[in-house]
Design goal:
Chain lengths: 191, 95
């Protein structure tokens, strides 16, 4: 069977710019429309962020080696979930989208950033006040908001993939993860 | 005024570049499936685009087998942007 590119009937007319552009756009949309997120990505991301926020708040308020260990364990949980999700995305789809990686690992969108920052601040304050139910509530809300931001980005990407595919490369993300861990250790040691 | 780029003017070549603009990197087999072309046809396009510095390719592993990953370079994205702008200008003139 002849393919789209090889068949004379389906190939865009090279003399008609409108037809050429439409053919190229359709090919791009075919790729974007066929991409699938790993099953359970957003619930897993919400849970991982909630764990990270909760453990970091506990660690900052705790001022002990145990607190540092708990906070670092939270970071490890989050990074493991993020790395596994991105690996699964690449394995399922055969593509890498740096914009998605930035959303998952960095919460690069406004919604995710605000949800994370608000939850982290509230959880840390609650931990210093020993209001543990509030730590849990803030962490869960932050995780849900972070995942919601990631979901919104995904829908926007599907509508206009070329405008949103860019983001931090895997090497940059790995370097940032190391910096984040060192920063957390410094913060806890200084506290 | 934007200029047409002869290297990506052919509809098939433009489809390769435009499709790659949706991702950071795509596996050769994924690109082939989306564009519905043979290995040899896609290889020729990728080689020509790589020679011009519009795409980069690297060997990798997916699900335990060796694969080739292809991505647009910054020069490739810029060439695509210019070419699409030139095509849109042509369409506007006709309209």
């Amino acid at each position: 069977m002849l393919s789209i590119m090889e068949s004379s009937t389906a190939q865009p007319n090279p003399d008609d710019p409108r037809s050429v552009l439409a053919g190229a756009d359709q090919a791009r949309q075919r790729l974007a429309a066929g991409l699938r997120l790993p099953a359970g990505l957003h619930p897993a991301l919400a849970a991982a962020v909630a764990v990270q926020v909760g453990t970091a708040a506990y660690g900052i308020a705790n001022h002990a080696t145990a607190g540092l260990a708990v906070a670092l364990a939270g970071v490890a949980v989050f990074l493991s979930v993020a790395a596994f999700s991105l690996y699964q995305f690449r394995r399922i789809n055969g593509v890498r989208v740096d914009g998605l990686a930035s959303q998952i690992v960095l919460g690069a969108g406004a919604t995710s950033t605000m949800a994370y920052a608000g939850a982290f601040g509230a959880a840390t304050w609650a931990a210093f006040e020993s209001r543990w139910w509030l730590v849990v509530a803030a962490a869960v809300a932050g995780g849900a908001g972070y995942a919601f931001g990631s979901l919104r980005w995904w829908h926007a990407y599907r509508r206009d993939p070329a405008a949103r595919t860019g983001g931090a490369s895997p090497r940059v993300l790995a370097a940032l993860a190391v910096v984040a861990c060192l920063g957390l250790v410094t913060l806890l040691a200084a506290g | 005024m934007a200029q047409l780029d002869p290297l990506i003017h052919a509809p098939a070549r433009l489809q390769v570049v435009t499709t790659l603009s949706a991702v950071s990197e795509a596996e050769f087999a994924t690109l082939r499936a989306v564009l519905e072309v043979s290995d040899s046809v896609l290889s020729k396009h990728v080689s020509a685009l790589a020679e011009a510095g519009y795409v980069h390719s690297r060997k990798g592993v997916r699900a335990g087998r060796r694969t080739t990953w292809i991505g647009l370079t910054n020069a490739g994205r810029e060439a695509l942007r210019e070419h699409v702008a030139a095509l849109r200008q042509l369409i506007d003139k006709v309209d």
